[in-house]
């Protein structure tokens, strides 16, 4: 047995030297392989779903639910055509609108799957609009039923778009910004605001159409306060009448009105009858802001003889410039398909910026922006 001590000095140094020389290349290769693997995994998974309130949402999921409901209702695939656009499904169905029970079941299934679902059913025009978080996500177009409803005024030329800006009257400077956009936006002025009369004078002198934004009781009242001068279910007809007449003194030059909040009041036939009888007396029209699917505005207006229309899309439920721009483009596409569409927005800085961005589309595109009075019908 040798007593010599074995030392790893020579071979150890060479091994360490070789490892040191290779480590940068190995390290770089590892990074590349990791990036490729992550990219492959991402592509395999597809786009991430939108998250709202903890519930994932794909438009394809809504498509499955809607088509399943239609097929269960007796429609065949030959009767159903669907157009898919970013953020919007449009169905053309050869057949009349299904029963309310069928639509109730569809709404319940969608609400179970996704948050923020609401629908707007319009039997007179054969339309069902399905909203998610206030944004139009699905439009179903059925064959019109033969109902005794006066048709909307004939639209000639380009498709027509109305943009109503609610809640004006709080700031004269903000109203000037709206005028400076150069887009014919209809002013809906809250009569109880400090600058209500000043904003009405500015709008009238600038050639803009003016509406009274009538404050009305919502379902969430009293937690949500529509204003000290609002119309409430507990008021007498005399008090309601007195309040409505006071609005005309605060908002001069108004030729129409729409509701501020009012999800409960617009379901209250006796109260809406008081409001609309005064509108008829004054020769005014009324736009239903459609804050509830159970609104009686159109039926009462038709009986009283007040020209009316219904809001199609809220443009700025999400106060983000990109989201509002997307809603404006949706409004335009809806008008292109139907010939007309009504959107409602608010004087947020984000809304004004989005309108500024989309002014070219609104002024020189495929549609014509008109004041609200142009799209009402008796």
Task: For this entry, give a set of tags.
378 residues, alpha/beta, nine-stranded parallel beta sheet, five-stranded mixed beta sheet, disordered N terminus
Helix/strand order: HEEHEEHEEEEHEHEHEHEHEEHEHHE
Instruction: Estimate the strand proportion.
Output: 15-25%
Structural class: alpha/beta
- The geometry reads as globular
What's the total helix number? 11
What does the main sheet amount to? 9 strands, parallel
Helix content: 40-55%
Q: What distance separates the N and C termini?
A: 116 Å
> What value does the average pLDDT take?
86
Tell me the number of strands. Answer: 16
Radius of gyration: 29 Å
Uncertain residue ranges: 1-21, 39-55, 146-150
Please explain how this structure is put together.
With 378 residues, the chain is α/β, with parallel strands linked by helices. It has 11 helices and 16 strands. The strands form 3 sheets. Strands 8, 9, 10, 11, 12, 13, 14, 15 and 16 form a 9-stranded parallel β-sheet that branches. A hairpin with a 2-residue loop joins strand 1 (50-52) and strand 2. Helix 6 packs across helix 7, helix 7 (269-282) packs across helix 8 and helix 9 crosses helix 10 (349-357). The protein is globular, with a radius of gyration of 29 Å. The termini are far apart. Residues 1-21, 39-55 and 146-150 have low confidence and may be disordered.
Question: What's the structural blueprint in terms of helices and strands?
Answer:
Layout: H1 9-45, E1 50-52, E2 55-57, H2 59-72, E3 80-85, E4 88-96, H3 100-113, E5 117-122, E6 127-132, E7 135-143, E8 160-168, H4 172-180, E9 186-189, H5 196-205, E10 210-216, H6 237-250, E11 256-261, H7 269-282, E12 285-288, H8 297-304, E13 308-310, E14 313-314, H9 321-338, E15 340-345, H10 349-357, H11 359-364, E16 368-369
Parallel strand pairs: 4-7, 8-9, 8-15, 8-16, 9-10, 10-11, 11-12, 12-13, 14-15
Antiparallel strand pairs: 1-2, 3-4, 5-6, 6-7
Helix pairs in contact: 2-3, 4-5, 6-7, 7-8, 9-10
């Amino acid at each position: 047995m040798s007593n010599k001590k074995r030392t790893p000095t020579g071979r150890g140094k060479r091994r360490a030297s070789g490892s040191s020389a290779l480590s940068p290349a190995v390290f770089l290769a590892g990074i590349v392989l990791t990036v490729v693997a992550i990219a492959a995994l991402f592509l395999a998974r597809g786009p991430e779903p939108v998250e709202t309130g903890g519930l994932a949402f794909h438009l394809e999921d809504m498509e499955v639910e809607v088509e399943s409901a239609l097929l269960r209702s007796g429609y065949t695939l030959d009767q159903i055509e669907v157009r898919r656009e970013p953020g919007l499904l449009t169905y053309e169905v050869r057949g009349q609108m299904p029963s309310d029970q069928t639509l109730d079941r569809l709404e319940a299934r969608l609400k179970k799957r996704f948050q923020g679902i609401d629908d707007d059913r319009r039997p007179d025009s054969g339309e069902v609009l399905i909203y998610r978080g206030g944004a139009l996500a699905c439009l179903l177009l059925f064959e019109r039923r033969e109902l005794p409803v006066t048709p909307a005024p004939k639209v000639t030329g380009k498709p027509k778009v109305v943009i109503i800006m609610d809640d004006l009257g709080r700031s004269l400077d903000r109203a000037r910004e709206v005028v400076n956009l150069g887009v014919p936006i209809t002013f809906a002025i809250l009569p109880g605001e400090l600058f209500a009369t000043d904003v009405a004078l500015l709008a009238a002198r600038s050639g803009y159409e003016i509406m009274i934004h009538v404050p009305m009781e919502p379902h969430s009242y009293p937690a949500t306060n529509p204003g000290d001068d609002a119309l409430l279910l507990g008021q007498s007809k005399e008090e309601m009448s007195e309040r409505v007449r006071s609005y005309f003194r605060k908002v001069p030059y108004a030729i129409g009105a729409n509701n501020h909040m009012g999800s409960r009041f617009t379901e209250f036939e006796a109260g809406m009858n008081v409001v609309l009888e005064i509108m008829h007396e004054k020769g005014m029209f009324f736009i239903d802001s459609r804050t509830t699917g159970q609104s009686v505005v159109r039926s009462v207006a038709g009986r009283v003889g007040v020209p009316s229309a219904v809001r199609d899309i809220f443009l700025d439920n999400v106060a983000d410039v990109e989201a509002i721009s997307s809603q404006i483009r949706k409004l335009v596409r809806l008008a292109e398909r139907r010939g007309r569409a009504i959107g409602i927005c608010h004087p947020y800085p984000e809304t004004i910026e989005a309108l500024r961005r989309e002014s070219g589309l609104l002024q020189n595109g495929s549609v014509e922006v008109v004041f609200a009075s142009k799209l009402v019908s008796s």
